[in-house]
Amino acid sequence: MLRKAALNTGIFFLYLVSLLPFWFLYGVADVIFLVLYYVIRYRRDVVKLNLTNSFPERTEAERHKIERRYYRYMADLMVETIKMITVSEKSLRKRMKPTNPELVEHYFKQNRSIIAAAGHYCNWEMAALAFGLLTTEKRIIVYKPLTNEVFDAMFNRVRARFGAMLVAMRQTLRTMIALKNQLTFSVLVSDQTPNMHEINYFTTFLNQPTAVFLGIEKLAKLIDAAVIFYRIDRVSRGYYTYTLVPLIEQPKLTTDHEITEAHVRYLEKLIQEKPQYWLWSHRRWKYMPEDLSK
């Protein structure tokens, strides 16, 4: 009971912080960067290892530059995510702009639903919030629940502020079947790490054997949805664009793993272009193919 009360107090504090203006929050982010990078050295070993394995062709100095830029951006990402709790629709539209929203109507006029792959790249939380403004048809965000139920509920309330429907990963198939006769636009984060018992496929991603979910591929074939990539680009501090990039028009005509390889390769290319915006502190490579035979 006391723990829940403390968590609720923490959430109320985050709400108060979110009321602060962006310019002030970015001053806080500058301090957060110094603390994360130099004082507590948050997961520096994980980031360094991930960068070394992902970019063996780059020099140590080049990887160190990416590392510092990543931590600077992570500090910005933290305060921007807090700001999402109370950001207005007007401010959100100004800071997260679509470049080709007409693509949604293009598919809907063909009576085609849409499934978008996204990555932990740039501000995916702000993009998820803006996703709710793209259309009035059913908008679905598939998410992996947090272990902390109080914070999980808070994040879901924030993500659903502008009309998106939150669906836990385990409920995705059931939800899609229930909505198969409706037009839907669904977003799934494609670079999550499967649990050991969920691994069915490995691919090479950033020079390493990587376990990936096949959910996007399975769902697209099930409901014959067009598959796109939800690309986010940082324009300047606090300002982004997002682009809907067509990947697969006819999923039922694809071979096994073709859809999965399409969105994995697109994300990989995006990361290679501007690596500082991906979530390097995540332990993405927990399992290797040999682990499955143990």
TrEMBL record:
<feature type="transmembrane region" description="Helical">
    <location>
        <begin position="12"/>
        <end position="40"/>
    </location>
</feature>
<dbReference type="Pfam" id="PF03279">
    <property type="entry name" value="Lip_A_acyltrans"/>
</dbReference>
<keyword id="KW-0997">Cell inner membrane</keyword>
<keyword id="KW-0808">Transferase</keyword>
<dbReference type="InterPro" id="IPR004960">
    <property type="entry name" value="LipA_acyltrans"/>
</dbReference>
<dbReference type="GO" id="GO:0016746">
    <property type="term" value="F:acyltransferase activity"/>
</dbReference>
<keyword id="KW-0812">Transmembrane</keyword>
<keyword id="KW-1003">Cell membrane</keyword>
<dbReference type="GO" id="GO:0009247">
    <property type="term" value="P:glycolipid biosynthetic process"/>
</dbReference>
<protein>
    <submittedName>
        <fullName>Lauroyl acyltransferase</fullName>
    </submittedName>
</protein>
<keyword id="KW-1133">Transmembrane helix</keyword>
<keyword id="KW-0472">Membrane</keyword>
<dbReference type="GO" id="GO:0005886">
    <property type="term" value="C:plasma membrane"/>
</dbReference>
<keyword id="KW-0012">Acyltransferase</keyword>
